[in-house]
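Practice problem 4.
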């Protein structure tokens, strides 16, 4: 399949790297100047280990470390199906902005993670 320029319309695969050291990163990955998937790069971070234990362990880890500082969280009705945008009539947004600590956002997600018709929750970085 080709586009108008005669090149393939299929995107190239992004190379994946595992178990690399600083020299490999510096000498092989950076010089390519292309996207790369760095598998396992942060596997040893405490937050990642907590998340691998369980969702509740992640919440507990964040609760004692987020300092209670409010972060912006977007909450939308289940009907938006995770698409945060404008209302159909363009009179406003299809979600609410909430200021709350990150652990409260995670707690809200955990409280509804088994509900098939849960609201959409997004915490931008």
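Answer key:
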């Amino acid at each position: 399949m080709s586009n108008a320029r005669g090149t393939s319309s299929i995107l190239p695969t992004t190379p994946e790297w595992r178990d690399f050291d600083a020299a490999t990163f510096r000498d092989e990955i950076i010089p390519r100047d292309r996207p790369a998937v760095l598998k396992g790069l942060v596997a040893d971070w405490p937050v990642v280990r907590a998340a691998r234990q369980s969702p509740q362990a992640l919440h507990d880890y964040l609760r004692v470390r987020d300092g209670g500082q409010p972060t912006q969280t977007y909450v939308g009705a289940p009907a938006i199906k995770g698409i945060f945008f404008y209302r159909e009539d363009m009179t406003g947004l299809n979600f609410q902005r909430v200021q709350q600590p990150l652990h409260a956002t995670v707690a809200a997600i955990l409280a509804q993670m088994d509900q098939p018709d849960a609201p959409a929750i997004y915490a931008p970085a």
